[in-house]
Amino acid sequence: MDDETILDQIRPRLKPRVIDLVRKAGLDTFEWGQYEGGQEKASSNPSYCYEWCFEQNGMIVLNIWFENMSIEDGVITQRLNMKGVAAHEVGIRRVRATRFDDAVRMGFETGSNPRVIILDRAKKGEGSANARLLDGSPWTIATYDCESGAFELVRGIANVVGSSLHDVELGEFEEGEARMRFTIHRRREAKLREGKLAQNKQKNDGRILCEVPGCGFDFELKYGELGKGYAQVHHLVPLSSLDHSGTGNTLDDVAVVCANCHVMIHRGGECRSLDHLVSDGS
Fewer CB near the terminus (10 Å): N or C of the chain? Predict the structure, then answer.
């Protein structure tokens, strides 16, 4: 099967509403109806329906153009740089590009698997979408350069951070050395994350607390059984500065943080220090 045939299999043919695809991806769209049109007109709320990405409780949905897809090592790939886009845009487009970059950076740090809405249009680079679909296949943020903002999305493999990768899934990437290196790296990341959470739990008498000074958020205390054992792990040094094999990363290179602090650390494309992140109220 040639590359064009492979890509054609995921080309959108229909144009469902964005709100329906976002709901299908698992996000709550109640807030879409909190404007003058009410819930009946929620799908037309301009504060949401024109967004380029959506993030909620660590879940990410990205809108990406079909025209930018390519095949590398037999894998559908998309390379983007929304930080670069934001630098050349103004107004709401700059805001949307920055939000997209923030979501991707966060997804890479936390090992999230974004859901992807594929958009198509009549002419490359021009006009709005004339078709869209929510891809049923998993996507992974394989790389993210903290300095430039360049990143790579790959389709068809579930992230191994916080989950296990089945042999069937691994088999899809036997011919791609880069994909195998990525898998090995993510396994090491998972081990590092588990070790850091265990260290935090031991220090806090069985609780897992955000390590940002002045925060100390406890997911279990707030959400009960649902939040037990959960927190996010943040790289204190930008990942682009670390050993790409993952072998040089230690427990001292990462910190346990809550989702809110993690967003604030990286808001606007930064990688802020944990110290003085939380205001003392003065």
Answer: C
> Kind and range of the H or E element at 187?
helix 177-203
Domain extents in the chain: 3-159, 192-269
What is the spatial distance between Cα 278 and Cα 281, in angstroms, rounded to a whole number? 9
CA-to-CA distance for 77 and 211, rounded, in angstroms? 36
Exposed/middle/buried for residue 140 (C-beta within 10 Å: 0-12, 13-18, 19+) = buried
Q: Which residue has the higher pLDDT, 178 or 82?
A: 82
Q: Give dist(CA 30, CA 38) in Å, integer.
A: 10
Classified as helix, coil or strand, 26 is coil
Give the tens place of pLDDT for each residue, 222-261. Answer: 989 888 888 888 888 765 555 444 445 789 988 999 988 9
Residue 276 CA to residue 76 CA, distance in Å, equals: 42
| In contact, 82 and 94? CB cutoff 8 Å | no
Q: Which of 146, 153, 166 shows the shortest CA–CA distance to 53?
A: 153
Give the pLDDT confidence score for residue 166 in this predicted structure: 35
CA distance linking residue 63 with residue 78, whole number of Å: 12
**C-alpha 231, offset from chain centre:** 16
Question: pTM score > 0.70 for this model?
Answer: no
Q: Which residues contact 244 (CB under 8 A, 6 or more apart)?
A: 185
